[in-house]
Amino acid sequence: MPEWLWAGIWGFVAGSALLIGAAVADLFTLGKRTIAYIMAFGSGVLISALSFDLMADAYRRGGFDSTSIGFVGGATIYSVLNWLLSRHGAKNRKRSGGQQPSEKENPGSGMAIAIGALLDGIPESMVIGLSLIGGGSVGFVTVIAIFISNVPEGLSSSAGMKKAGRSRLYIFGLWSAIVLISAIAALIGYAGFRGASGDFIAAITAVAAGAMLAMLADTMIPEAFDEARNWAGLITVLGFLTAFVLTKLGG
Asked: Which of helix, strand or coil describes residue 105?
């Protein structure tokens, strides 16, 4: 099977966890604290993958300059776009409580939430495709980390959408579209940058990593802390350790 197709498949696999989270939110009524615990664990997993997988790979390919510029650039781009979307109703798109506005309360917020979900998912998927460039194999820990973190993302956001009165068709239609786009983004990450220099690939990988860390700080960690409180730090550390162990076992 060609590598570009594998990139798309792994992007689809990682993105499919969003649908799993949405299904859990649809079938069960979980307490906000339980959702926060899952969110904290997923945050720790993703932070570890960013540190030991993505940033390490970017540094190996392009050194400190390309990696640092891309990392800060990715966080800046994400933060600006997230700020713009927040002004149109997408600020609390990852929240499981009653923070998300309904379409009646804030017309156009549904579209803003959809675009926000897309903004959150594309960087994660692109790094999967980028990890295949150069004859390498897809980063196992990266895929696992993104998959694990996507479950609480889909769960918390879907629970919030449900409380805001959005239909089951809207919720599952949104996540299905994001899963498909995730596969395409991973494919583009591989096919679009396959002939690029090591410095350029390092910068793009770091851009994605910076955007992902900014996403964690802006959306996932606040949800976890608001409900888990004193236990959020410990659970985040356990998630971090889990991904760290996977990294060492995989190496």
From this structure: coil
